[in-house]
Amino acid sequence: MRVAILADTHGFVDPRIANRVAECDVAVHAGDIGGADVLLSLQPREELVAVRGNNDTPEKWSSGERHMLETLPREASVDLPGGRLVVVHGDDSGTVAERHRRYRRRFADARAVVYGHSHRLLTDLDEEPWLLNPGAAGRTRTNGGPSCLILECGRGLWHLEPLRFERRRYPGSRTRTRRGTEQADEEAE
């Protein structure tokens, strides 16, 4: 079974990642989705699992999409061949090592925990549960380019493939920098 793992799209999924999702049986989105159109653009063969991120709020989703937002849980789990995958959005409290210790204690019965929030691709496979952050799959703060993870799982063996794509310039795409000026999203990283 192939599972696409992504997060932090903030209203836009890089088309190269959407194409990879379509090649997978299951897609998992770890929050900061940014709108129903993102979820509708993800077309895995069997199932889409998504959780709500700190930016997935009624104020940031259009009024016509809020009914979909209200159905998103803060935490989800998926039973896969060989183990359970837990999905949360995450937060930035403490160091990465402290967060990983906390997740490993809280989800000790999982094979892996997926989280987002930091926009940084990171895989910690040193012990179980594995801790997987797919980075940002959109165009906002991709830290080197949009990224995701592909998990191939069977009863005994799981294999993880991190994917990072080159940044692209998308027409009309602008963002506000920390200094308050506007510039193209990929330049703002």
Describe the protein's architecture and organization.
This protein is of the alpha/beta class and 189 residues long. It has a single domain, classed as Purple Acid Phosphatase, chain A, domain 2 (4-Layer Sandwich), CATH 3.60.21.10. Helix content is 15%, strand content 30%. The longest helix has 11 residues, at 96-106. The protein is globular and about 40 Å long. The N and C termini lie far apart (34 Å).
What is the helix tally?
4
The pLDDT mean sits at 90
Amount of helix: 10-25%
Total count of strands: 12
The succession of helices and strands, N to C, reads EHEHEHEEHEEEEEEE
Examine the secondary-structure arrangement and name the CATH architecture: 4-Layer Sandwich
- CATH-defined superfamily: Metallo-dependent phosphatases
Query: What overall geometry do the principal axes of the alpha carbons give?
Result: globular
Beta percentage is 25-35%
CATH level-3 fold name: Purple Acid Phosphatase, chain A, domain 2
| Strand order of the biggest β-sheet | 3-2-1-9-10
How many domains, as an integer? 1
Q: In terms of structural class, how would the helical and strand content be classed? A: alpha/beta
CATH classification class: Alpha Beta
Give the uncertain stretches in residue-range form.
Answer: 180-189
* End-to-end separation: 34 Å
Please compute the radius of gyration using only Cα atoms: 16 Å
Largest sheet: 5 strands, mixed
